Amino acid sequence: MLSRPKPGESEVDLLHFQSQFLAAGAAPAVQLVKKGNRGGGDANSDRPPLQDHRDVVMLDNLPDLPPALVPSPPKRARPSPGHCLPEDEDPEERLRRHDQHITAVLTKIIERDTSSVAVNLPVPSGVAFPAVFLRSRDTQGKSATSGKRSIFAQEIAARRIAEAKGPSVGEVVPNVGPPEGAVTCETPTPRNQGCQLPGSSHSFQGPNLVTGKGLRDQEAEQEAQTIHEENIARLQAMAPEEILQEQQRLLAQLDPSLVAFLRSHSHTQEQTGETASEEQRPGGPSANVTKEEPLMSAFASEPRKRDKLEPEAPALALPVTPQKEWLHMDTVELEKLHWTQDLPPVRRQQTQERMQARFSLQGELLAPDVDLPTHLGLHHHGEEAERAGYSLQELFHLTRSQVSQQRALALHVLAQVISRAQAGEFGDRLAGSVLSLLLDAGFLFLLRFSLDDRVDGVIATAIRALRALLVAPGDEELLDSTFSWYHGALTFPLMPSQEDKEDEDEDEECPAGKAKRKSPEEESRPPPDLARHDVIKGLLATSLLPRLRYVLEVTYPGPAVVLDILAVLIRLARHSLESATRVLECPRLIETIVREFLPTSWSPVGAGPTPSLYKVPCATAMKLLRVLASAGRNIAARLPSSCPEDWLQDMQRLSEELLLPLLSQPTLGSLWDSLRHCSLLCNPLSCVPALEAPPSLVSLGCSGGCPRLSLAGSASPFPFLTALLSLLNTLAQIHKGLCGQLAAILAAPGLQNYFLQCVAPGAAPHLTPFSAWALRHEYHLQYLALALAQKAAALQPLPATHAALYHGMALALLSRLLPGSEYLTHELLLSCVFRLEFLPERTSGGPEAADFSDQLSLGSSRVPRCGQGTLLAQACQDLPSIRNCYLTHCSPARASLLASQALHRGELQRVPTLLLPMPTEPLLPTDWPFLPLIRLYHRASDTPSGLSPTDTMGTAMRVLQWVLVLESWRPQALWAVPPAARLARLMCVFLVDSELFRESPVQHLVAALLAQLCQPQVLPNLNLDCRLPGLTSFPDLYANFLDHFEAVSFGDHLFGALVLLPLQRRFSVTLRLALFGEHVGALRALSLPLTQLPVSLECYTVPPEDNLALLQLYFRTLVTGALRPRWCPVLYAVAVAHVNSFIFSQDPQSSDEVKAARRSMLQKTWLLADEGLRQHLLHYKLPNSTLPEGFELYSQLPPLRQHYLQRLTSTVLQNGVSET
């Protein structure tokens, strides 16, 4: 008889046994039975299908054979000695019919019916934990009588008894074993009661074949019992003859040896069960167990009866012989003690084939034949147990261990391996790259999963491994050492090139796939795909940054872990601008680093290793900020904006402990009070050129020293107060919460009085080298104070009086800044000048007051104002557009602006020189509010084809809106601009083109501004005879104005009002001569009604005209009909008044020429054929704009005039003619 193979025999031994078996010609131990046709049906194909409504899954496409895992020799069929194969039966077909492949079992899957299964909700319990399982008394008592047997041995014995108890051989379904996990029960339930078939004396107590193994513990027994009841129900529905027929069919299909084994096994279990029942009957709680209730255990029996038939294996050479007296060693299980044997000797490599690499705990590569002692901890019970060290596959397996120390150990070894691999220690001793192998195996995401571990030690080793993987040794040392070189801060991004990615994609994609491929920016790719090309991008896609932030913010790791995290972040920042931006934008990451590792104050650290880096300055953290700032300008600008909480607290403590008490000191108040005494603006006469100061030899003129109370004197408050305001602005910009407290300094009475005096109109200091130098420093103090007020106004409303004062100061400063302060000019235009917070009138009834003034028609102005309040409110809404307009036209030249900006910001690398330009005049003219309009006028004059209507309309409208705001609420800002200059600027609106003045918004704004000029307090200051800034001659401008009016006005009343305003009696006669002498045709278009005249009519009639040429022109236009009341009612009344006054004048000091002209004009008037004109010229009394004619008439001439007229007319009648 041939022996069976034993454990430990090799494939060579198995092949030797096979050859012996074939040579002996013995019968095989198994007999192949041909399986029925799976697709064509079987012998019982005529049976009706089962009526079941459950889901049925047909697995017809499964392969017939399971996939081969390892190569194996081909199978050979041999006949069993008791069952010879028929000659006409194919052995392979018989083997396939009895094959237990998955397709033979799962060809048809029927879903279990759960419609009638009851759903049991969890029962509430009053205890926190379930009751502790206690062994029954009978078990405890039995252990005492059964000798020194362990609980495990007792369970094994109970299992054997349960297996021995079973149905007889003649039963239909043999009992193979109870389900795993079943527990012993004392009382049988009705479900477990025996079921007896009709016409049979046999009963079935429970399932004997189906055990429910593989299901959950709470479902296994229930599911097995459900299937058992379905089988019993089907058997009860069948007749005894049908049962016997099915039994014979099953016996014919099954292997006879299998049937014999099941019958003998069932018979043995039945006998064993009866014996066990008899032993358990006397005494104890288990005496109530019935015969039909078998005992079940969850443990599998180790020794089997069939094992006794096998030859015993050779005894193990154990280092210690087990004794039965030892605890739990009464039954020796030798296979479990196999690991205690000595290791086999290390096999020497006999061939050149490659062996698996193994590493020590320090990451060193161990030689294949090295023999190390076992106390080093490098041996284990896996593959090649005799070889010391761990392979990469075994280390990966350890990282998934349930023991945290094993996970940490595996990650530590992998980190050491990576560090040594990057250092080049392995060289050519390994085939391939260790890093590539680890990355292909998913080591990157293994580290990411390890970072989510709950054990701090595992997290620490995972971070160390991540640093070893990402940060190449020597990279940071090289970059740090060359940082101070020329342009050493410039580095290339440490990211893969796009060409490598394209080549990689081309190797993996087909041409059709490449045509449809999308870029990574267009398609959201999973992290593994990103990491395959770019490790950093793959890591960032796994939410690495929030996890590192959590470790720093919550777990408070040790110094080594903190440095590792910072090194990883630095490597991420060096990858690309995108990665650096993501590091910056990670919520609370930079704030945590700066707060914890860059504190502004800390306790002294003693010598020796630091136990914690928290609240201690860390150079690596500062290096991270430096690398982030060098990645991009926007990042560098955003880093200060995310100041940490500690810095803010330090600033708040500085303000509370130092600045706020200082601001309340009386000494500081005296400094503010001394501003006016030391100010050059408040004392312009203090800056007088020295006597010995020739123009060809320039000096500051301080040879004799400066007075004590002067800007440069020893008692000057300007240096300290300017520095204090600069500090307050810096703190308010960083910590906005302190802005309100720091801005309280602006309410000092001394500063308020100083601003009031600076805003008040007065003579500006004469520009000298010293005054330019001194004024520049004084303007710095004013600008810093306004900047602090602007920051405070952005957070909370300022008092109305203070806001108006600050706005007036900003307007005054804007027109005074000297060359070199272009940046301050630009900042004032951006912030203070056009801010709604500095216009409190918009919310305190300013527009409403303007409308009320219009309704009351205050003053002598008769211009119909079109709702000044509405215009002011609209101007406030359009303030951003107004600011943009002035930024476009009033900003300094770009080159000078950039140089001034770099100088004031401290960007010395952009400063071309520290010498300021020559201070010949301020940067902006005094009439800068009209500057866009003047430039628009010059552009229109230089462009014959005309300008764009949109550009023209927008610029003119924004300028008029802003000038109206200044005229209404900030009149002191325009005090330096004479009213005549303002009138000339308004006239430019009509000279730009022929259509602009017709626009309704422009009409309303010009009418409102004209009404401002015609107010009683402003009109006396209107002087057209003086020299105007930016204008060579007003008469020339007026002549052009008359030409334009005559050409395009078409009788526009507003245009006519501006033509009539310079014709007042007190202005130059040249203007009136230009109209009546050269532009008589314009008289027909001056149809402005008397009621809309902007000034009183007396301004034109008083005093009487004394220019004979003009009087003669008046009379000519009246007599010839060129001047008629329906065409030009205003000038008709003016001409009548002056002619009447002239013809009845009896001044004895008049020259003979004047007397002759007077007599001639009176005679012609008396002889006029136009009775109406004759009546007006002779009977004129007083001007009265309320009358249609504009004047009153005498009903009867006064006696003197009547006597003079009669005397003159009698002379005419006597002579018959009149001299001309």
Describe the structure.
A hairpin with a 6-residue loop joins strand 3 (195-196) and strand 4. Mean pLDDT is 78; it is low at 36-57, 59-77, 140-146, 166-194, 274-313, 502-518 and 858-864. The strands form four sheets. The protein has a two-stranded antiparallel ribbon. A two-stranded antiparallel sheet has the order 3-4. The radius of gyration is 56 Å and the shape is elongated. It is built from 51 helices and eight strands. The termini are far apart. With 1220 residues, it is mainly alpha-helical. Helix 35 packs antiparallel against helix 36, helix 43 (1034-1048) packs parallel to helix 45 (1069-1078) and helix 49 (1152-1166) packs across helix 51.
In short, what is this structure?
This protein has 1220 residues and is mostly helical.
Q: Which parts are unreliable, with pLDDT below 50 for 5 consecutive residues or more? A: 36-57, 59-77, 140-146, 166-194, 274-313, 502-518, 858-864
Largest sheet: 2 strands, antiparallel
How much strand content do the residues show? under 5%
Helical residue percent? 40-55%
Shape: elongated
Count helical runs. Answer: 51
Instruction: Find the count of extended strands (DSSP E, 2+ residues).
Output: 8
Span between N and C termini?
Answer: 172 Å
Let me know the average pLDDT: 78
Spatial strand arrangement across the major sheet = 1-2
SS-based class: mainly alpha
As a whole number of angstroms, the C-alpha radius of gyration is 56 Å
